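In this section we walk through a basic example: taking a raw amino acid sequence and producing a predicted 3D structure, encoded as discrete structure tokens. The instruction is simple. Fold the sequence below.
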Amino acid sequence: MSKPLVCLALFSLGAAAHANVVLAPLFTDNAVLQRDKPLPIWGTADAGEKVAVTFAGQTVDTTADSAGQWRVALAALPANAIPADLVVKGNNTLTRTNVVVGEVWLASGQSNMEWPLAKTYDAALEIAGSAANPLIRHIKITKKVADAPLATATGEWQIASPATSGDFTAVGYHFALDLYRVLNVPVGIINSSWGGTRVEAWMDPAALKSDPTFESVASGWAKTLAAYPAAKAKQLTDLAVWKTEAAAAKAAGQPFTKKAPAEPQGAGHQATPSGLNNGMIAPLVPYALRGAIWYQGESNAGKAAEYRALFSAMITGWRTQFAQGDFPFYWVQLANYQSPTDTTWAFLREAQTQTLSLPATGQAVTVDIGNVTDIHPRNKKDVGRRLARLALARTYDQKIVASGPVFAKAEPAGAGLRVSFTEVNGGLIAPLNALVGFELAGEDKVFKPATAKIEKDTVMVTSGDVPVPMAVRYAWRNAPLAGLFNVEGLPAAPFRSDTW
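The resulting token sequence is shown next.
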């Protein structure tokens, strides 16, 4: 069993003096440390206090500075599944037990990353089976909004078991499980996620100042704060009416399904620009990790061009914060949801795809496994597995197919367009028995449903309504019917050949 978590909320790593040596928040019992990288270990103590850190045969000494902060770096270690103690000695002694060395990944984003294993398909089977995976560890960072970067957070590393794994991020758990199966080393997931959040809340302050166009984020938030008093007054009035209606329905024995008025955005709200980076990412720095996985974008739908710039800046900003180079960053492209005719999510998916221009990035396409009536699809196993494919192929050099077909070009061919792809990986297939999801448009820029046929590693697309096609689109809807895969069963990424 884990020892009680040190009450991290009672100290600040930036405070000037402390009676006892204190470790930073990620160093608890059951922690996973990153293999094959120098290992920063840090915390606070009395100014001038001598501090010694011992782990895996290494002891490193340092002295707390005038602000009471200290930090050491252990030499890189190989993976080790045999638990060891991490001991820190100052005026007092701290011992963290059952610490292992393996692979550490930061999992972040909004509700689909936060979504727990207990609320997914086959949850009972997955949770019961987690007893066999004690080398998969998880720490959930407590939700916190802050106006300036914090040095502390709360959370506790837990070992996967039927008693704990139901609360793990489901995407992160399945990602870790596949890594563990292939790599046979401990895997730790740092789960710092919050439902309904926008990308700008996860950006560090420097990233939000890196582009003049981002000023619109700050000015928009200033207007939100200015409007808060009136919005709050209205919410309280509406809430009183709602309570009266709910009480009346209860007294009459009638169902009441009307939702309570939502709390308006204001100071301390999770929409605060940089607020979640300050409260939930900054305290994790500079913990050694392999990379990050990300599932977010729903809350930014409708502002695709802005999202592309913000998302790219967020990734670059995180890499700067952790100072571990261009660590791998893999994300989930938005799943199919809602309208089969609207294209709002299609453009957001395109913004995600465009972010692949950054180095060491990858995208798990999920347009085939969503739920058109539920923004929280329960199939998280395939999501985690597709992220794991990316990591295994691109980070760990495993010989595994990581992607479905990716659009390369469209060329005129007879009365239609011939579409070529990369990542064909053995051939194209249409497992839904119909190759649906393709559209063509001519000079009028009006897209019409098209007939598509697989011809070797290309797709021939034609439409009687578009005799002279100028552009082709595929799966370009919020909830498209998408029928193109490669033989590994991985879906083609939505695309368009136009820039209209």
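Looking at the output, two observations stand out. Residues 1-18 have pLDDT under 50 and may be disordered. Residues 315 and 358 are 9 Å apart (CA to CA). In the next section we compare this with other chains.
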